[in-house]
Amino acid sequence: MNDARHAVLSKVPEVTLGFWIVKVLATTLGETGGDAVTMSMNLGYAIGTVIFFGIFVVAVAAQVRENRFNPYLYWLTIVATTTVGTTMADFADRSLGIGYAGGSSLLLALLIVSLAIWRWSEGSVSVETVTTPRVEAFYWTTILFSQTLGTALGDWMADTNGLGFGGGAVVFGGAILVTAALYYFTSISRVALFWVAFILTRPLGATVGDLLDKPHALGGLALNRYYASAVLVVAILSLIVIIPQRAGTHPSAQTTS
């Protein structure tokens, strides 16, 4: 009996610089797209949440049924999590009246619980192990909580600390650079740093999105939300075509005779 190693293809993309660029654009689209439905269409946060949560459920179901990594379906599902995350956070923070601190604390607790259950059940929360429907369920649940938390953090930083949308984007962009430095120059867990970076890209996208579409009186550029969202969609699709989209892998032991 000889022990051999083989690579199992993941259902999510390889984490590269291209991954993070598309992720930031997707989170920005989540903000402009969510605001377009809840504000520009005047549907409100509750109805917007119902609409986008329905899209999220359909996208995740399609993603789980897919047998292999599909970059278009994957990024569609990511965008679905960012849009529903935007409306859910706004609904909790504003419509329910629990405020940014309360909303952020609740979502952080839900995110920690999701990661803890995932870790307890599967032994790892590494994205490289997303190869089965069970792990995908943990993955997308965790991402939904992280995207919603990121929206609440972005709004909290921009609205209550006097930084504005531009200042908030600088703060979260700087935090991402620090995380990258920790990745390259320390031995801190790569899995932990991934999730920190993943969470931080959401408030970065949220503040950039708000900077683009909020009115001048609130410190934004007052760009049309529909046009801004369309430009972001084109940019994401273009990058998916231009930047190689490879499935991530993880080593798995296999015994052969």
List the keywords.
single chain, 257 residues, mainly alpha, two-stranded antiparallel ribbon, 8 helices, 2 strands, disordered N terminus, disordered C terminus
Tell me the span between the first and last alpha carbons: 5 Å
For the largest beta-sheet, the strand count, sense and barrel status come to: 2 strands, antiparallel
What string, H for helix and E for strand, traces the elements in order? EHHHHHHHHE
Task: Describe the strand arrangement of the main beta sheet, using strand numbers.
Answer: 1-2
Specify Rg, calculated over alpha carbons: 18 Å
How helix-rich are the residues, as a percent range? over 70%
Shape: globular
The unreliable regions are 1-6, 252-257
Write up this protein.
- The protein is mainly alpha-helical and 257 residues long.
- The chain has helices at 17-40, 44-65, 71-95, 99-122, 133-160, 164-185, 190-213, 225-242, and strands at residues 2-13, 247-256.
- Strands 1-2 form a two-stranded antiparallel ribbon.
- The longest helix has 28 residues, at 133-160.
Nutshell version of this structure?
By secondary structure, this protein is mostly helical. It contains eight helices and two strands.
What layout of secondary structure does this protein have?
Elements: E1 2-13, H1 17-40, H2 44-65, H3 71-95, H4 99-122, H5 133-160, H6 164-185, H7 190-213, H8 225-242, E2 247-256
Antiparallel strand pairs: 1-2
Helix pairs in contact: 1-2, 1-3, 1-7, 1-8, 2-3, 3-4, 3-5, 4-5, 5-6, 5-7, 6-7
